[in-house]
Amino acid sequence: MMLKRDEAMLVFVDVQGKLHEMMDGKDVLDGNLTRMIQCAKLLELPILGTEQIPEKLGATSEPFRSLLIDVPVFGKSAFSCCGEPKFMGAFRAAGSRQAILVGIETHVCIYQTAIDLLEDGVEVFVAADAVSSRSPENKERALQAMRDAGAQVIPTETVLFALLRDAADPRFKELLKLIK
Predict the structure, then answer these.
(1) I want to staple 106 with a disulfide (CB 3.0 to 4.6 A). Which of 40, 139, 158, 162 is the partner?
(2) pLDDT tens by residue, 23-77
């Protein structure tokens, strides 16, 4: 399965507060999360966000909160985004058949969301360097489990170039600036 811009949605999962600060490889994670949001906007992909029990864990961390100012962000208590009816309603209303998952934590919320979406018939793509866990071992095991379940686990740049598809696209130069 290949990513298709007219079928894909970016799902930005639970990048919040102190938990965000504890992520392994946080600088790489943050750079790739920023690129994913900026490029999704450039390519006019729909974006949905979630926050895990925001009353306890806090709101989406900056600079992401500012980048997502015009994006629906849903509070949730379920670990899977699919456990939040408002999220699922918005996802289905968008008509997306593909989900690109980014955020934290890989072995909990990203994993459960990926499995639920796969079971719902959605093609799932996990941007491997735009997800993280506190433990690199937990992240790697969860990425393998998602791959085994049928998700595509690929780097951020692979996601972005698959969405762009062609260097002749007028947005190619802008996308390159965001990647470098």
Answers:
(1) 139
(2) 999 999 999 999 999 999 999 999 999 999 999 999 999 999 999 999 999 999 9
Contact 4, 99 (CB under 8 A): no
The verdict on residue 107 lying in a domain is yes
Q: Going by C-beta distance under 8 Å and a sequence separation of 6 or more, which residues neighbour residue 54?
A: 16, 75
SS3 label, residue 73: strand
Q: How many CA atoms lie within 13 A of 114 on its CB side?
A: 30
Rounded to whole angstroms, how far apart are CA atoms 128 and 24?
A: 13
- Confidence at 175, pLDDT banded by 50, 70, 90: confident
Count the Cβ atoms, other than its own, within 10 Å of residue 140: 14
Residue 156 resides in a domain: yes
